[in-house]
Fold this protein.
Amino acid sequence: MLTTLAIAIALNSAFGQTPPPPAADETVSVTLRNGTTLYGTVRNQNERVLVLRLDTPWKVDDRTIRIDDIASGPDPERAGARDGRREREWTSQGYRKVKTPSGVLWVQREQVELAKRARDMEAQLAPAVPAVPAVDTATSEAMATQTLPPPPAPTPSPWKRWGAEGALVLVALAVAGLAYKLVAGT
């Protein structure tokens, strides 16, 4: 009886454990029983559930998957396979790879087509650049000798601008105070 219990405990511990989760930054693939394959990084894993941050740059999403629903995985994904898969996913989402001076960007296909149409319309509407006429030396000398109007006078400081009015207000207050004192004193 004791040996049967020991064997049962050993089998339970051997088959009941889930494999350790992969490294936090490692992309893994998980195939579900319904045939869907998900790619992402493992955020949390225990004996009942696996939390997977999906590897979709256009939408950050964490997916909680029951261990019973997993057919195979989590298996590490090769870097080369990841690049090809992400390119296919971007394309299926309606994006297009565009090379820019700052690097490669994924832009919505409609936006790329609209930008191309705008450049074509600008090219059609832009007038042809006129040829530069020969420079007349007499005209250029006359333009060089023209004088520019003088710069505007600098604005006076607030003390110069409002000083006289301020002094007048102070004198008026002094006279009003003197008049009040004379009237109130009698």
